[in-house]
Amino acid sequence: MTETTLGPEDSKIITLARAVRARNGTAEGAAVRDETGRTYTATNVDLPSLKLSAVQVAVAMAVSSGAVSLEAAALVSEEEEPAEQDMAVVQDLGNAIIFMAGTDGTVKGRYI
Description:
Layout: H1 8-24, E1 29-34, E2 39-43, E3 45-47, E4 50-52, H2 54-64, E5 70-76, H3 84-91, E6 97-101, E7 107-111
Parallel strand pairs: 5-6
Antiparallel strand pairs: 1-2, 1-5, 3-4, 6-7
């Protein structure tokens, strides 16, 4: 699967996830799109007392802003697939698609 086979809104969240990861110099970048089309971006948090994945942070930001469901999520990482906890937190808000992309933006997989 390549970015060219994605719709423009899905390509956008991958681009946003790549940008936030690069800007913050972190292992992961994520972006989620809620039911109204709003997007939220985040990176992983790796503090001695708090460890959260980028997807967990992005979903928390969406929920704290009033989102009740997600349309899609994108995760940019060197990993090959989303972690189980990332899949679970996205499923908490419905059956959104998770796009897993490499740091160069190449889509590695699509998960529901």
